[in-house]
């Protein structure tokens, strides 16, 4: 009887092994494929933003600023005192190519007709419009706003070059100048003109293309995030420059929502028979590199921010204190993973002495915990680094405090 029981147990273990092989050969690869497809759909979600308005209003400068570039950047949209855009021109976001900002030809010519203009530039191509104006409200702005509203298209009215308006106002009335009052007058005038043109509840934002972190840009970001849904919202939150602490936190949250997918994919890969754990490091290293770029902590992003903010890359780089922010390499990632996983490796070996499938599953569970802890901790560190970098970049006339680093 005892011998029969042992044979039965061996049979069950054999059955489990065969079942495990079947699950690993069919279920795990299929789940991995679907999970990777979900992550790919996030990264490739298309978002097309139209930037339109009169010639000379600063459309191209705004396109560059929204892409995190200065006008002198090699990849920047051309700018000038005369109209430089002859036809709708897409400019992909440097880090998210599926997000495109379209620089549309200028309006306001004597022969301008809003309906024909929208037909020519391809009205249905864009997710929303940024209607750009500067200096004063013109009839072409009213016509274009009416046409967009009539077509049921979402648009936002941007009054640009506000910094120039403030300087001019300060020069004209130095004794009675009050910045808040001037900004309120500009806002009220645009709203009044748009309402007179028949636009209900117009959304007006005051911006400076060369000082994007000032005035209403944070409010514009928040409004767009509220009104977009799904993958397009995800793309927008990762694409627009995170220039305030609130924007950095919002970006951290949108990335945090998908950490479990990345960690689970690493877990499934480790559960596949015959695949070494080192493959997880490559997957996670790529994810961490994308996180670091998203927070503007890589060398290219720090250089671009330094050019826009008239700072120095060295000054900004000194604010990066997290261990993975300072050094992102296979060795540094493997070290963090090993610290988390070390305590569970013995359990995986013990389980594997009796049921090989269980060893793979436990190893996958350890991998999930380690990957999740790695990504979560790195995300927190990158967000803190990003806020410190922004403070150093935009603090006018004073040096930032020396960062206190607690990295090993």
Strand content: 5-15%
| CATH hierarchy: architecture of the largest domain | 3-Layer(aba) Sandwich
Q: Tell me the structural class.
A: alpha/beta
Strand order of the largest sheet: 2-3-1-4-5-6
Number of strands: 6
State the major sheet: 6 strands, mixed
Total separate domains: 2
From the 3D structure, determine the CATH topology of the largest domain: Rossmann fold
> What does the overall shape look like?
globular
Give helix % range. Answer: 55-70%
Rg over CA atoms, rounded to whole Å, is 27 Å
| Low-pLDDT windows of residues | 1-11, 274-279, 346-359, 396-408
CATH superfamily of the largest domain: P-loop containing nucleotide triphosphate hydrolases
Describe the structure concisely.
About 60% of the residues lie in helices and about 5% in strands. With about 400 residues, it is of the alpha/beta class. It folds into 2 domains: about 1-45 and about 255-395, no CATH class; about 45-240, P-loop containing nucleotide triphosphate hydrolases (Rossmann fold, 3-Layer(aba) Sandwich), CATH 3.40.50.
Structure description:
- The chain has 408 residues and is α/β, with parallel strands linked by helices.
- It folds into two domains: 2-43 and 253-394, no CATH class; 47-241, Rossmann fold.
- It has 16 helices and six strands.
- Strand 2 and strand 3 form a beta hairpin.
- The radius of gyration is 27 Å and the shape is globular.
- Residues 1-11, 274-279, 346-359 and 396-408 have low confidence and may be disordered.
